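---------- Forwarded message ----------

FYI, see the Branched-chain amino acid ABC transporter membrane protein record below. Original note from H. follows.
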Amino acid sequence: MGWLKRIPRPGLIVLALALASAPLIFSNPYQYDVAIHVLTNAMVAVGLNLLMGYAGQISLGHAGFFGLGAYVTAVLSANYGWPVYLSMPAALVVVAVLAFVIARPILRLSGHYLAMATLGLGILISIVLRTEAGITGGPDGMMVPPISIGGTDIYDERYWYALIAILLVATVWLALNLIDSPVGRALRAVHGSETAAEVVGVHTLGYKVLIFVVSAVLAALAGVLTAHYSGFVTPGLANFIYSIEFVTMVVLGGMASTYGALVGAVILTLLPQFLTGVDDLEMMILGAILMVVVIFMPTGLVPTLARLVPGGRR
């Protein structure tokens, strides 16, 4: 566990300072709300980047883990009266167990077979959330109790922003250290050639399962935070289109780039805010931007720009 003791890197310090100073330019609750959605999306993107960018395993079902995490904490706290400090970690455990159970069979697949398997998983979770109305509230969704500290319910967007910003910095720190640990080197070997990795003694399936579970738990954490922040959940949280958006964030920012995942999340979460006046063209513009990046910057925005800076990385 020596990788947990690594000294924070300059990039991480810059990220922390940027998150700490961002509220200085916020003038209303709506801007805090958008920023919070940026941070939760970034958390999912960082975890998905570990799976796709470093292990080379695609997932089109991560919105399912996001939605499942949100619903488990919602059901436990709203329907069964669990305190939030128990329902939230319980949701992460449930998602971790599910991810571990399904990872071994589906990660034996590769390419489009793996993509279809993860897609089917995400759709299945969405269907369950929509049809089990007695538990989840069905298509209408359900209310979620707020987080309470010292008997006081927390609604203020400033506190939520601070909490999620701290968790995002911790997520990035763990991701960076994981990448440079023996686990990260094993993941890169798996991405390069599973056969070659197995020849030198790397337990490829074990490492793929591990990183699949880690990325699923990070998606669930973002879902848990979103549920208690918004106070309401619907099956739409697990919609397939959100899985595609998460994948696009990783590809746009740069695969195998932790900071690229952050940049991709920022761009794809904020861009629709600037395109609200052209609703009919929004998807066309987003698609055009993605095409330009894929054609002219095939490694993504951040890796391409990093190559222009001496010593630039991640």
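H. also flagged this: Residues 1-7 have pLDDT under 50 and may be disordered.
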